[in-house]
Amino acid sequence: MAPENSRDRREELVERCLAAFVQAGTLDLSLDTLAKAARSSKRMLVHYFGSREALEESAISVLEGRLRARFRAGAFPRGISAETAIRTLWDQVTQPASRGLLLLSMDLTRRGWSGSERGRRFFEEQQRLWSEMLREFLPDAGSVETFLQLFQGAALVYLATGDRERGRRTLDRFSGEMLRHEPNK
Amino acid sequence: MAPENSRDRREELVERCLAAFVQAGTLDLSLDTLAKAARSSKRMLVHYFGSREALEESAISVLEGRLRARFRAGAFPRGISAETAIRTLWDQVTQPASRGLLLLSMDLTRRGWSGSERGRRFFEEQQRLWSEMLREFLPDAGSVETFLQLFQGAALVYLATGDRERGRRTLDRFSGEMLRHEPNK
DNA sequence: TAATCTTTGTACCATATGGTACATTGGGAG
DNA sequence: CTCCCAATGTACCATATGGTACAAAGATTA
For a designed S-S bond to A153, which of A131, B60, B152, B164 qualifies (C-beta 3.0 to 4.6 A apart)? Predict the structure, then answer.
């Protein structure tokens, strides 16, 4: 069913653009490329969003909403062990189908450290999200902090090499450490 | 002393361009910007290197040479503890003066995961370098692998937030774990 | 129906970019 | 001195990019 009013059309366009960004693994698509991928035209993108910047902002907001839903606190069943949660996270994030999403997140993070305030905000929100989600699986704030950094390093290695195993090994090792110090509960 | 022959001039130019890349924290500088930073002209850059791509290749090679010298196996005195070595590495890498170098390395790594074969090669060489350097401080290959990923995640967080402390904390924690399992030697 | 508002295409523009053509200079070799 | 080749500047070109002008075609409303 085709969208009826202008707001619906805008929303449909932003969905399609986000899909294109995810597929490309970056926000760095020209308006023409983007429009083609979204089955629209540069003319219409500018018409509905006013500028490329505004379009990007809309797409990022939608992306953040999705990630919030997917990685919110309580996204995993309460009962499962830290090992299971960690393993599941890694398997999800490094699924081939998720690669675009991971690349796009990394692209935003990179924009953050290259000076983009929006990129920095995105990064900080993801950190917060994951921290809250992990708090119920890991024993203390320090282990959450370590996990986050280890996971990000693992993700970076995965992106650069395509090898899921390196990260899986180190995360398993991390889980093992958890166990050794917190063998119960 | 001014360079005399054509090869010297080329080398001087590549040094200056590398310095510009480091200062910018990325290879993504236009030839004009680059030329200005190198006190030369686009015309001359093309004259000496033939193309932007060749220029980048030269600069990357020089960069790799420097990193090889700085992070080679044996770069640290044999006797020092893993804690000291790790702490020193972190302090060096996150020194404000090193920020451009870190950014540039990350930029190359990103190019690697965005499809650049050269970027991938750069990344793998750095991994190899650091592995060899760390082998004499860490007890086994697994801990080296974990350390590398943790360090890279820490560096990413440092770049995105500017906060050196987060990484310092998790690396100290990692050192502590080492100690707990390998209290002697 | 007439008037108005939204949507859309086509052609265009200004700017940036990597790179080239051409002419000029300047120093060393014969 | 003259010839030649490297070095260099200026102007230029083709392409890509974000964005705009203008006009036409629907759709909506008075």
Answer: B152
